[in-house]
């Protein structure tokens, strides 16, 4: 099989969509398939099977866009067509400028097209301070539907987002496939850094932006009965770094705000004592799945827009979204019940061990692409 993967953003270690793209490309190539990457990633210029398009520019807003999602791609019809010549299927990661133009050209060339559903309307409207504005979200949702209605197969990372989409727009040729947890993310003995040796380490991973709601977690720790014993680690980067650092500066132990490599992150997952996922909006939450795979007990926002809540093993691992007092109560419970936490930790390892393994998820992605090719040949799509 020859496949072109279209990604509107360049490869970045802090971008979940491009990480998903990289994992897919790596897996397919390991299976003997030819994979071309169409993106604005200038670092790959001139490399075999990489087709590079220009970047979009937004003038004075360039810095803001880069902080939030990195460089976005512009469309170049000649480069797009060159990347599609001789391929069997096109997979589009995101429905932005490049993805939309790629879909149109793939249709003109008679190619089957699949696309990943990695963005909710709120992930876009949050940047114009309209995340909770129903009309604004409805307008963006309609634009997304116009795109996905024209593809042959949709990759939904969770059943939650498939149900949410189909409840509004009807049945799809959808495939529910997790983006997967890498095999090297496993439980192992890791000693805490000396600076945290006598502290209860709470980890939260995600971009520093509004929908991730890290400020709720900081407020909760401030209200905890054990505030002086807690060390918060906020793993990530993003535009709200200064704000979060300022808020956290009021704690006895100021939070660590830092970006970690994948290998470093696995160490943190294994020496942390609790994982908190406070996000209001989340399509999947691979970071939380990684925590679970390491046996790290999670406390997750119960927001109706957060798919991650379905990974909570019971009510002890859920808190009322946006309510720092309720989150503080959950944190205190786990700090005061180490035996129950240890028992649940082992159950989590057993639960996540096979279900979300990256290799199995990538096998399903391969099946989706092959099935889409066959259905196109048979005239079924």
What features would you highlight for this structure?
381 residues; alpha/beta; Rossmann fold; 7-stranded parallel β-sheet; 6-stranded parallel β-sheet; 14% strand
Question: Can you give a write-up of this model?
Answer:
- The chain has 14 helices and 13 strands.
- Helix 1 crosses helix 14.
- It folds into 2 domains: 2-180 and 357-377, Rossmann fold (3-Layer(aba) Sandwich); 194-355, Rossmann fold, CATH 3.40.50.2000.
- 44% of the residues are buried.
- The mean pLDDT is 92.
- By secondary structure, the protein is an alpha/beta fold.
- 42% of the residues lie in helices and 14% in strands.
- The strands form 2 sheets. Strands 3-2-1-4-5-6-7 form a 7-stranded parallel β-sheet, with helices on both faces. It has a 6-stranded parallel β-sheet with strand order 10-9-8-11-12-13, sandwiched between helices.
- It is globular, with a radius of gyration of 21 Å.
The CATH homologous superfamily of the largest domain: Glycogen Phosphorylase B
Instruction: Report the portion of residues in β strands.
Output: 5-15%
Per DSSP, the total helix count is 14
Mean pLDDT: 92
Poorly predicted runs are none
Strand count, sense and closure of the main sheet?
7 strands, parallel
End-to-end C-alpha gap:
19 Å
Structural domain tally:
2
């Amino acid at each position: 099989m020859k496949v072109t993967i279209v990604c509107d953003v360049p490869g970045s270690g802090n971008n979940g969509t491009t990480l998903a793209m990289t994992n897919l490309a790596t897996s397919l190539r390991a299976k003997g398939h030819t994979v071309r990457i169409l993106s604005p990633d200038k670092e790959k210029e001139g490399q075999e099977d990489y087709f590079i398009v220009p970047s979009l520019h937004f003038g004075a807003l360039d810095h803001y866009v880069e902080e939030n999602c990195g460089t976005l791609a512009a469309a170049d019809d000649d480069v797009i067509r060159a990347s599609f010549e001789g391929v069997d299927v096109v997979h589009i990661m995101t429905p932005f400028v490049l993805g939309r133009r790629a879909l149109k050209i793939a249709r003109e060339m008679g190619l089957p097209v699949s696309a990943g559903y990695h963005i909710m309307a709120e992930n876009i409207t949050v940047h114009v301070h309209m995340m909770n504005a129903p009309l604004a979200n409805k307008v963006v949702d309609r634009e997304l539907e116009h795109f996905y209605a024209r593809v042959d197969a949709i990759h939904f990372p969770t059943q939650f987002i498939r149900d949410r989409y189909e409840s509004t727009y009807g049945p799809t040729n959808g495939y529910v496939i997790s983006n997967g947890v890498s095999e090297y993310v496993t439980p192992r003995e890791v000693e805490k850094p000396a600076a945290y040796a006598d502290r209860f380490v709470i980890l939260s991973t995600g971009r520093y932006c509004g929908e991730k709601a890290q400020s709720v977690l900081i407020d909760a720790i401030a209200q905890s009965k054990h505030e002086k014993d807690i060390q918060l680690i906020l793993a990530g980067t993003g535009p709200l770094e200064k704000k979060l650092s300022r808020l956290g500066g009021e704690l006895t132990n100021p939070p660590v705000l830092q970006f970690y490599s994948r290998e470093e992150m696995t160490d943190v997952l294994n020496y942390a004592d609790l994982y908190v996922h406070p996000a209001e909006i989340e399509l999947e939450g691979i970071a939380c799945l990684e925590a679970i795979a390491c046996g790290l007990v999670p406390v997750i926002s119960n927001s109706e827009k957060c798919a991650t809540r379905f990974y909570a093993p019971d009510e002890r691992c859920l808190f009322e979204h946006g309510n720092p007092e309720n989150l503080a109560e959950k944190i205190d419970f786990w700090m005061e019940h180490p035996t129950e936490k240890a028992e649940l930790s082992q159950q989590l390892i057993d639960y996540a061990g096979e279900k979300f393994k990256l290799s199995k998820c990538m096998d399903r992605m391969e099946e989706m692409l092959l099935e889409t090719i066959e259905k196109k040949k048979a005239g079924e799509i």
